[in-house]
Sequence to fold (437 residues):
Amino acid sequence: MTDKIFKLIEQEEQRQTEMIGLIPSENNVSPEVSAVLATCLSNKYAEGYPGRRYYEGNQIVDQVEQLAIDRVKELFKVPYVNVQPYSGSPANFAIYFALMKPGETLMGLKLSMGGHLTHGHPDVTASGRFYTSVQYGVTADARIDFAEVEKLALKHKPKVIVAGNTAYPFELDFKKFRAIADMVGAWLVADISHVTGLVIGGEHMSPVPYADVIMTTTHKTFRGPRGAMILATDRGLKRDPELGKKIDAAIIPGLQGGPHNATSAGIAVAAAEAAKPKFKKYAQQIRKNADAMAAEFKKLGLTLVGGGTETHLMVIDLTPFGVSLGTQVAFAMDVAGIYANRNTVPTEKGSPFYPSGIRVGTPLVTTRGMKEKEMRQIAGWIARVVEHVKTEQLPSDPKQRAAFLKDFRVRAQKDPVLLKIRKEVTAVTKNFPLFKW
Ligand code: DSN
Fold:
């Protein structure tokens, strides 16, 4: 294997192994999931669905996709599953395409308050342009503002309400969303991409009794390949017996071509893994680790959005040290061997590109076998990084800002304090191989 690409993959594996990954939407798949992704299944076109394809030669691929569908149906106890969406964003759009006509109203959580771009973020996203978007927010304690959800729903009569998020640290109350959806006859779509593994493990409320349609990516806490799936519940199918057919048609011919069969196989493997008792333990440990990390952050004087977490993630609010510190802290953490992402906070005074928060989560480190002790160590390292760079305030003038960041990045990469932390990090990560579980 002489192609330069293999050298780069080796380097990436070394980077992932040496560093601590805290991006809450990332995880490490099992060797089995990895293995099926690199098989001949990738060679085959299979437009259509099992038993009704546009191409011949799908006798085996039909069985692969059906196995994935059946395992996910069994795992969630739902009557309909589609494993073909290429990822979460197209999956959400497929749901809207199935349920709404252009111009009809979609309601979702604001991006700056923890929502996702595809939940109707205005102007720059397809979901915000093709549909009339109404966005709800969070209260002063960073919890979903259900009074606002109700008020907006009664006023705008949305066709679809999305209960979902991407940087929201608390449990989503699907029951409350259902009650509001029923007041206006809206479809309730639960986007559980971040918390699927917690739902399966019993660590987060399940949307199955309340939502009509559920979307989840398959590579986050579910710990499968990169992809997504759409589930319809008994409730959804009772409301419209054609719901499954509509979602199928929204995927193909609506939005996609051939499914990624190796991904379908990976979903089948991940679903079998998630059905095992040890997956429940994994979900429990994600939560214990998040609680331990949150408690240590607080002990060390860092502020968390909403004061803590009920899930796998938390957002560190750096506003007490200044506006728009997220870029500098995230970069410095990366130099120190810990990678996360900068993020807006609900009371953001900076911008999505230069926000004032850092989002961290425990799914990946938990997969590697780290426990509460390591979470406290990680929180300690992050607190040291914040303390070290908190005076590196971003200039408000855009020209000065670019020059400042260029200079900051050069200085940070040689910074002895950050490099010392990196040494401490690698001394710990060598005990936690990527596939330990
Ligand atoms: N990019 C994902 C995340 O990080 O939450 C959501 O699409």
